[in-house]
Write a structure and sequence with these properties.
Blueprint: E1 8-11, E2 14-23, H1 25-34, E3 38-39, H2 45-58, E4 62-68, E5 75-77, E6 101-104, E7 110-113, E8 119-124
Antiparallel strand pairs: 1-2, 2-8, 3-8, 4-5, 4-6, 6-7
């Protein structure tokens, strides 16, 4: 269960929450799903800023609910739909199939990253 301790933001129709834990992508996704949500997935600038607020609060990069599809360089939401909004850091994504997950930097920009690293868990409900 997520202990929230005031680490909750709302963005439009979504509620964002973090337990402050750093885990790999699969564990982050699992803990969000167990809590009845999914990994935070920014669909627009407002949602990106709300997620960034939590990233800055902890001063840690966080995984987003975005993964690379079968085609190298083609990223999708974890539900399989194509991205409708992106905020890639300059020269990203650059993993060319080796970095399947996406993290948010503390400036709000995105970077493709390996899925086995430990990043902040932020869920959306």
């Amino acid at each position: 269960v997520l202990a929230l301790n005031g680490k909750i933001r709302d963005a439009g129709e979504k509620i964002l929450a973090s337990n402050g834990k750093r885990v790999d992508f699969a564990s982050a996704l699992e803990s969000c799903e167990e809590a009845g949500g999914t990994l935070a997935t920014p669909m627009n600038e407002e949602e990106n800023k709300a997620i960034l607020g939590i990233v800055k609060q902890y001063n840690q990069n966080a995984y987003l609910g975005i993964k690379e599809g079968e085609t190298s360089g083609q990223f999708k939401y974890i539900n399989g739909t194509p991205l409708s909004y992106t905020k890639w850091h300059q020269y990203e994504p650059n993993g060319k199939g080796t970095e399947k997950c996406v993290e948010m930097y503390t400036d709000g920009s995105w970077n493709d990253k390996k899925c086995n690293l430990y990043r902040l868990t932020i869920c959306e409900f």
